[in-house]
# Entry
Amino acid sequence: MNQLAKSSRILIFEGITLEPFSLACNMVGFCSKCDLDLESLAYHSTESRWLVCAHCKNEHLILMCYDRQWNWLGDYDLEIYTEEVSISSIAKEKLEAVFTQAEIRDMIACQKGLPYTRQNLYRARAKYEKFEKLFGIKIDV
Ligand SMILES: [Zn+2]
# Structure
């Protein structure tokens, strides 16, 4: 199964890892399952092909494959996977620049499935965007 990473939009196509060259959101056709509009999620390329990942509002996913002249070659199945960033693997200095000790402790606890204080996690979540802007690391806990 071809897989598209939820946040980085890196595509694993036939076992090859491809970085997206565009995340443009375009109307790219109609969903073969439900006839709704298909919107592109990411564009990738290999030496001989263009690959367009797209989805419809019903979350049907499709990977459309074209040759270098944009002749349609076929559609493939696609699934989204979420890359999990382990909080414990992020440098403490980075975390401490944005989060309090209590927030860091509870983010780690939540990720490990241990008891945590909701208030701290809510406060931490409000800062994820700031953290991503500063360090380019997307946290999703
Ligand atoms: Zn659909």
